[in-house]
């Protein structure tokens, strides 16, 4: 029997199926800054949203996150290709482009830790926005 992510489009998925696609990498919860060299691109940092749980790499207040972080982006099927800062490893982005899920994705591996043990999460590589004054001091290049 085929898996739901192989038979349904992103728009056809139930809320539970949609939410289960999040691999818990935490990459989308890291801040960005303007290119310090004057380029048009945004640069990724290792500065995590204050709501990101550093161990679980998931939002500590997901259901009411907009109360604390009003500009937190809600991913929807029609937004996936319009959000340039989503990492290439993002399950939503991969499925929207027809790539399928990575072998380390918890839905494929059956192990919620596989995203971390494979090195595809921000666990151990981030700092909280509460501890940072200048995001540009924290630009990283490992978020592709």
What is the chain-wise order of helices and strands?
HHEEHHHHE
Question: What is the makeup of the main sheet?
Answer: 3 strands, mixed
Helical amount: 10-25%
Terminal CA distance reads 32 Å
Q: If you compute it from the alpha carbons, what radius of gyration comes out, rounded to the nearest whole angstrom?
A: 15 Å
Oligomeric state of this protein: single chain
The backbone outline, from C-alpha atoms, is globular
Strand order across the biggest sheet? 1-2-3
Number of strands: 3
Mean pLDDT: 92
Brief digest:
Helix content is 19%, strand content 10%. It has six helices and three strands, in the order ααββααααβ.
Describe what this molecule looks like in 3D.
With 144 residues, the chain is α+β, with helices and mostly antiparallel strands. It has one domain (25-138). The chain has 6 helices and 3 strands. A hairpin with a 7-residue loop joins strand 1 and strand 2 (42-48). The protein is globular, with a radius of gyration of 15 Å. The model has no long low-confidence stretch (mean pLDDT 92).
């Amino acid at each position: 029997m085929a898996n739901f992510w192989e038979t349904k489009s992103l728009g056809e998925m139930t809320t539970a199926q949609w939410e289960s696609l999040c691999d818990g990498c935490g990459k989308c919860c890291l801040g960005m800054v303007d290119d310090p060299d004057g380029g048009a691109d945004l640069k990724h940092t290792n500065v995590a949203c204050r709501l990101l749980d550093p161990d679980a790499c998931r939002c500590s207040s997901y259901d009411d996150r907009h109360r604390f972080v009003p500009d937190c982006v809600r991913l929807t099927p029609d937004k996936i290709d319009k959000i340039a800062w989503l990492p290439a490893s993002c399950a939503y982005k991969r499925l929207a482009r027809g790539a399928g899920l990575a072998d380390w994705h918890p839905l494929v591996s059956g192990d919620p830790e596989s995203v971390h043990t494979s090195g595809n999460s921000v666990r151990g590589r981030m700092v909280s926005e509460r501890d940072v004054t200048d995001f540009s001091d924290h630009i990283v290049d490992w978020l592709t």
